[in-house]
C-alpha cells in the first residue's frame, strides 16, 4: 500500500516540480502562450494528491475499512438492518461491536433480530 501512495505522490507532483525546475533553468518558458494553463493544471494535479489517499487507504487497509464501516453504521441517516459490526480483534479473535443504539434498535426492530443477536431469529 505504501508503494502505491508514494508512486501516486510522485506522479501527481512530478509535472509541477518539472515546471518549477525548468522555469528556474530557463525563465523564458514563462513567455509561452499556454504556460499559465500548464501551470494551473500541474498545480491542480499536485494539490489533488491529498484527495486520493483516503480512497487508497479505504480500498487496501482492512483496519481502516473496518472502522469506516463501524462509523458508517452509526450514522442515523442510514437505515441499515445490521446494528453491530463483526471484526477480528488485534489478537485475531472474532469480536462484535454494537452501535450506540444497538439494544434500542433490537427492541424497535424485533422482527429482524431477537435479544440474543442476529444468530437467533
Automatic annotation (TrEMBL):
Signal sequence, renumbered to the chain: 1-18
Principal cellular location given in the protein's record: membrane
Residue ranges constituting the G-protein coupled receptors family 1 profile domain according to the UniProt record: 1-57
GO molecular function: G protein-coupled receptor activity
Membrane topology: Multi-pass membrane protein
Subcellular localization(s) per the UniProt record: Membrane
Keyword Lipid metabolism in record: no
Pfam families given in the database record: 7tm_1
Keyword Transmembrane: yes
Keyword terms, alphabetized: G-protein coupled receptor, Membrane, Receptor, Signal, Transducer, Transmembrane, Transmembrane helix
Gene Ontology CC: one annotated term: plasma membrane
Name the UniProt record assigns to this protein: Lymnokinin receptor
Taxon lineage: Eukaryota, Metazoa, Spiralia, Lophotrochozoa, Mollusca
